[in-house]
Automatic annotation (TrEMBL):
InterPro entries: AminoTfrase-like_pln_mobile, MAIN-like. Residues 600-629 are annotated as: Disordered. It comes from the Eukaryota. This is Aminotransferase-like plant mobile domain-containing protein. Residues 99-459 form the Aminotransferase-like plant mobile domain. It comes from Dipteronia dyeriana. Transmembrane segments: none annotated. It holds the Pfam family PMD. GO terms for biological process: meristem maintenance.
Length: 629
């Protein structure tokens, strides 16, 4: 007999076993995140076939015809820490109130890129389940990871408008400063010019200008190193101590970019199968993917570098500052990491780092009332399925698929109905009140298990997916290279090969600049000035037309399932289990003053191990877009 414990938990007696299946099953009482089902006859949220198919035959990213431009992965400028220190002396109490102190300090540390690690993880990404599908289980970035990184889970939405004349006047001043830099010799309000203009200026808007640079460079970056106009209202709110929920916005962007990068990798596999080796696919990534790499370092022992000692007052990310590591084949390491995977790295003691309150020594039942501490309220949102509203996307959030990351037992994940007709509707889904009387907090060192039913389902899912994937292997046949560019054409390497009409439509509608005007402004073939290419509207139309031709031909050439197509379900399941891609946020649906931004704008000799794709870095300057080819 099931007992509903609260809004997100259900408790029942089950046969439980370790995630690896080792040992004998034990009958015990267990708590599970909702929605969960206790029979495979129910509406189980299955894993689509396309999530594990279509990857290059060998894992050698250095030799792949893929160029990833990490526009959102920016290193601190030479004088950035100095400015942070000065602003902290004046505004630290405000930063604590708005929940950004740790995140600001984290931006002063440099996380080196390991391209192999990022691509290895992305190979495992499933855009429908919003999780990495490993042979041994599911895992993903969650709101808890963003909370640990210093971003607030609680607060107002990022699109909250400015209501008073005083706040609107500050926005006018920031826009005026931006226009002045547009008229300067640099012809753009780049990060370096903005820092020089305001750092130590004693301007009455220096704090707001500081926060605008922080947001534009490290939190919600655009496709180039310029100040993003749409972050001005956010900066103004934060400067007044208003808490803005940045965590869901950032996580939505990471989910979106993982899906787009996975599509490029799948397209790369198709080009490889077609025998076309003269094309290069390019993709810009605008979300802060350093958070993805830190997530992996925290959990995969075989992939992490040697850590620094954290000093008193330093953020957790300080342990990874300037650290680099060379590992072997990332794909192999990820596939075999089941037993060594750390499900709850933040629950362990770390010198000079304070554990959040919800990492308790013993299990707790906390009363949900007006006095509920913020950290417990944040933990509750981390556990609840919802919608994440990003700058130009809405992504689903499915923590019930990875319950063990929260110290909670795992059972069959149920389907979740989407609630995302508009950004406002999606935000209401995310921010709805916690209605339960008590919140369950598991012991921090509790080793969660899985039901025997889940373990059997997982094994059967792997076998089914493997057999289907092998049966759908594409026939090697030449494909028209309509959406990729020759390797020799470095100046024009902008490939927008996408795997489904729906994805292509979203890319087309979303490739815009951010503006505080009342309409979306599209770019017509202009370059962002620092080597970051934009897709013009004309090229997008051409790409769409060509892609339709390519997709039609692929239907004749391949027997494989189309990339991005939802897994087939019964009509009954389709009512509750929407597995399609995230909707486009059209300009008509966006809140006032919020407009869509651009989509985050040598061969190895035989017998030798692949080269490690690591990037040595220096202190950042203004032209520091990180491109890995």
């Amino acid at each position: 007999m099931e007992e509903l414990v609260d809004f997100g938990f259900v408790e029942r007696e089950e046969l439980m076993v370790s995630p690896s299946g080792d040992g004998e099953p034990t009958l015990r009482s267990a708590k599970f995140l909702q929605p969960t089902v206790n029979s495979t006859d129910g509406s189980v949220f299955e894993i689509p076939i396309h999530c594990i198919s279509s990857v290059p035959a060998t894992f050698e990213p250095k030799n792949w015809a893929l160029e990833v431009k990490y526009n959102g992965w920016r290193y601190p400028q030479k004088e950035w820490r100095t400015w942070v220190e000065k602003m902290c002396c004046l505004h630290e109490s405000t930063w604590k109130k708005s929940g950004i102190r740790e995140a600001i300090w984290s931006s002063t540390y440099k996380i080196q890129i390991n391209n192999d690690l990022v691509l290895g993880l992305t190979e495992k990404w499933c855009p429908d389940t919003k999780s990495f599908i490993f042979p041994w289980g599911e895992a993903t970035l969650t709101l808890e990871d963003l909370f640990i990184a210093g971003y607030s889970v609680l607060g107002s939405p990022f699109f909250t408008g400015l209501e008073t004349e005083e706040l609107k006047e500050i926005e006018v001043k920031l826009n005026q400063a931006r226009k002045e830099l547009n008229r300067s010799s640099s012809k753009k309000p780049d990060h370096g010019a903005w820092l020089k203009k305001f750092m130590g200026s004693r301007s009455d808007i220096e704090h707001e200008a500081f926060l605008a640079l922080w947001l534009s460079r490290f939190v919600l970056p655009g496709s180039s190193s310029v100040i993003v106009q749409a972050v001005f209202p956010i900066a103004i709110h934060l400067s007044r101590g208003t808490r803005i929920a940045l965590a869901p916005t950032i996580l939505a962007g990471i989910y979106r970019d993982l899906g787009l990068l996975k599509e490029r990798i799948a397209a790369l596999a198709e080009l490889e199968n077609s025998g076309d080796k003269d094309q290069v696919l390019e993709i810009p990534i605008c979300s802060p993917f350093q958070l993805l790499q830190i997530w992996a370092w925290e959990r995969f022992k075989e992939l992490r570098p040697k850590t620094n000692l954290i000093k008193i007052g330093e953020p957790r990310c300080a342990q990874w500052h300037k650290q680099m590591t060379g590992v072997g084949n990332v794909r192999t390491i990820l596939d075999s990491a089941g037993v060594s995977f750390d499900w709850r790295p933040y629950a362990k003691l770390l010198n000079n780092w304070n554990l959040p309150e919800f990492f308790a020594e013993k299990e707790m039942s906390v009363s949900v009332d007006a006095d509920l501490p913020e950290e417990f309220s944040s933990f509750a949102l981390c556990l609840r399925t919802s919608e994440l509203v990003g700058l130009d996307c809405v992504e689903s959030y499915f923590p019930h698929r990875v319950a063990m990351q929260f110290g909670i037992d795992q059972d069959l994940p149920g389907c979740v109905a989407r609630d995302n007709d508009t950004p406002h509707v999606a935000w209401n889904c995310y921010s709805k009140p916690i209605t339960c009387e008590t919140l369950y907090i598991p012991p921090r060192l509790y080793e969660a298990g899985v039901t025997t039913r889940y373990l059997e389902w997982w094994k059967q899912s792997k076998l089914s997916l493997k057999s289907e994937s092998e049966a759908l292997l594409p026939i090697k046949k030449a494909l028209p290279s309509v959406l990729s560019t020759p390797r020799k054409s470095k100046a024009a390497k902008v490939s927008r090969l996408v795997g489904s009409k729906k994805r292509l439509k979203r890319t087309t509608e979303s490739s815009c600049t951010m503006s505080t005007e009342g309409s979306v402004k599209r770019l017509d073939g202009v370059n962002d000035g620092d080597g970051t290419p934009f897709c013009s509207s004309s090229s997008l139309k051409s790409s769409e037309k060509s892609s339709k031709t390519l997709i039609q031909k692929k239907k004749d050439i391949y027997v494989a399932v189309t990339l991005g197509k939802p897994v087939e379900t019964s009509k009954e399941k389709e009512k509750v289990c929407e597995l399609s891609a995230s909707p486009v946020l059209s300009s008509e649906k966006l809140p006032p003053k919020l407009l869509v931004k651009e989509l985050n704008d040598s061969p190895v000799p035989p017998g030798f191990a692949p080269k490690f794709n690591l990037v040595e870095t220096r202190d950042s300057d203004d032209k520091d877009d990180l491109t890995i080819a």
